[in-house]
Fold this sequence. Notes:
Pfam families: MarR (PF01047). One of its GO terms (molecular function) is DNA-binding transcription factor activity. Helix content is 68%, strand content 8%. By secondary structure, the chain is mainly α. It has one domain (19-138): Winged helix-like DNA-binding domain superfamily/Winged helix DNA-binding domain (Arc Repressor Mutant, subunit A, Orthogonal Bundle). The chain has a three-stranded antiparallel β-sheet. It is globular, with a radius of gyration of 17 Å. The two termini are 25 Å apart.
Amino acid sequence: MQPNQSELFHSINQFTRHFSKLLNESLVPLGLYTAQWTIIYRLKTGGPSTQKELSSYLGVEAPTMTRTLARLEKSGWITRTAGKDKREKLIELTEAAIREYDNWLAAVRSSESSVLRYITEEEISTMIRLMAKMRENMVPGT
């Protein structure tokens, strides 16, 4: 075991918690939570998806995803339509969500910018590569 290994994962966990809190402070006034934003972002950038695809991509258990999708649907941000397999619904953004997307994105980008204030592009690229390597060790094929 490397000496800094535990500190690395503790730092990642703490950063994630604090960043989620910061994002919530920006998004909640706009009617959205961080967990909902991750789904909306994925649907906007990746197109319509099934619940199973979203759960797998985000590493979220099915019951949690079901609850989050139900809230998004109730808020009018997503719709579910029959997919290729009648048992599986295709989830996509509503026109209302597409209209609101730029406002949500601006709030997220503002939070990201404040966190990355003294971080260089090179450091960002290095972090992206490191996170991808670690994710590959957890979820082969990602």
